[in-house]
Design a protein that fits this description.
There is one protein chain. It is built from 7 helices and 21 strands. The protein is an alpha+beta fold and 454 residues long. The two termini are 25 Å apart.
């Protein structure tokens, strides 16, 4: 949402950072970056596409020899009928002697506030219908119209030829290329002899089934301070789960995946909860984590937009609302462009979480996202908020400096350009929380692209 520029945050270099507030920064020590792959639910039913005869593909930008294939000659079937799937079959053609399958990304529903339709995330299955070895070129034909088309440069499609539920099975297609003149994203895949399926995705999916399994693990945790509860329901009737753990007086809220296509955010939540609850150590919790849970009570929402996640959306919920613009009213009541938010009718996900925050209070807040363009992990702060001053500046600088020391995936120099003082958008989550509770509140962005700093 902000221009991708270079900026620097203050470092924690003097004793002014070493007061009781400094305990906030140690939150960064236990947060694990999860960028592993993910699973697909075989129970999900949405839609699938089979091949049909098509007309010839003609490009005005360059000379391409193409020929439509008959239904008998088509050897690949495309389907997105699974949890989080998004990819509609368009046509198959021979282009310069190469069999080429064209796929289209389905847009999110229209976003009323932003007056646009978002799309960029894709995830689909390609199944070979021939026992022969065959190299196929795949083309996303509407990539040039995506929300962040410039971000395709340097992007690599993920794929897996084995179990998509295996977190170690996903790899990057290094021949992925973006043709800005044609507005297409493409890559090739050599289908092995004997047929079989391959899954392609903008980033490895985090399925709703995996989400439910994580919630179940937390509910079965041996940590006696852990409580799993629902704060409300989504428009599609899914629960808005919140995991609360710890006995401290200070309230730390961490939410994830407001934008459903940013699946790395829920992998992050899984790593965080695994560390806090000892999910991979039979309930054994390390000393630092125990210390933190004596000082803090953590409220963790692993997925803010489960409907959009299941539907394969990039940025919106079931009705088309961009949840990271639903945290406050836009404009003033009575004005032509007044927009009320959050509401139970449009954005119940934000409404129920913000209502609970008002009950508990917030002392420190982290909103976990993914960024399509920048190949780095970075923080976006609250510089544009009316209450921004030395205290919040010092806390934010200390947190970022401590994070970069504790985790080599984090870096400081490259981030969004900060908003100008007093010009922060109050309907954006981290700005609203920083101002509403006068606390350290930041957005963590993680890359779709391979991380260049590590």
């Amino acid at each position: 949402a902000c221009p991708h520029q270079m900026c620097r945050y203050p470092h924690a270099g003097s004793t002014m950072y070493r007061d009781w507030h400094f305990v906030l920064v140690v939150v960064s020590l236990f947060i694990l970056h999860g960028t592993r792959s993910e699973a697909f639910s075989p129970l999900a039913q949405r839609r699938s596409s089979v091949f049909r005869s098509t007309t010839s593909f003609i490009s005005s930008s360059r000379s391409i020899r193409s020929m439509s294939l008959s239904s008998q000659e088509e050897t690949i079937s495309i389907s997105d009928a699974f949890d989080g799937g998004n990819g509609e079959y368009v046509k198959t053609e021979m282009v310069n002697g190469v069999k080429t399958v064209f796929v289209r990304i389905r847009p999110d529903p229209y976003t009323e506030l932003e007056q646009k339709t978002h799309f960029q995330y894709f995830s689909f299955r390609a199944t070979s219908k021939t026992p022969k070895e065959e190299t196929i070129k795949y083309v996303i034909e509407n990539a040039g119209d995506a929300s962040y088309a410039i971000a395709w440069n340097g992007s690599t499609t993920f794929y897996t030829c084995t179990d998509p539920n295996d977190p170690n099975s996903w790899k990057r297609k290094l021949d992925t290329s973006y043709d800005s003149s044609a507005g297409t994203l493409s890559w090739s895949h050599a289908h092995s002899k004997g047929g079989g399926s391959v899954y392609f995705s903008y980033f490895p999916p985090y399925s709703y089934n995996r989400h439910l399994a994580l919630i179940s693990q937390c509910a079965s945790s041996r940590e006696d301070s852990c409580a799993v509860r629902t704060l409300g329901q989504t428009l599609d009737g899914r629960e808005m789960e919140c995991i609360t753990v710890g006995k401290g007086t200070r309230q730390c809220w961490i939410i994830h995946r407001q934008h459903p296509g940013e699946t790395m955010a829920e992998f992050y939540a899984e790593g965080l909860l695994t560390r806090l609850l000892g999910l991979d150590t039979n309930g054994c919790i390390d000393g630092l984590t125990k210390h933190l849970m004596q000082k803090y009570t953590f409220h963790i929402v692993p997925n803010m937009c489960p409907d959009g996640s299941f539907r394969g959306h990039l940025r919106t919920n079931a009705q088309g609302q961009n949840l990271n613009r639903e945290w406050a009213n836009t404009g003033h009541e009575g004005e032509e462009h007044y927009y009320q938010a959050p509401t139970v009718k449009r954005s119940p996900e934000v409404h129920c979480v913000l209502q609970e925050m008002d009950k508990t209070g917030v002392d420190v807040f982290l909103d976990v996202h993914g960024d399509e363009e920048l190949p780095f992990n970075f923080l976006a702060g609250a510089e544009g908020c009316p209450n921004w001053g030395p205290r919040l500046e010092h806390l934010q600088g200390a947190f970022l400096a401590s994070y970069s020391r504790a985790n080599s995936d984090m870096q400081i120099p490259i981030a969004y350009e900060p908003e100008e003082p007093g010009e922060g958008r109050m309907n954006v989550c981290s700005n609203q929380i920083a101002c509403r509770f006068d606390c350290l509140a930041v957005t963590l962005e993680m890359p779709f692209k391979d991380c260049l700093s590590h």
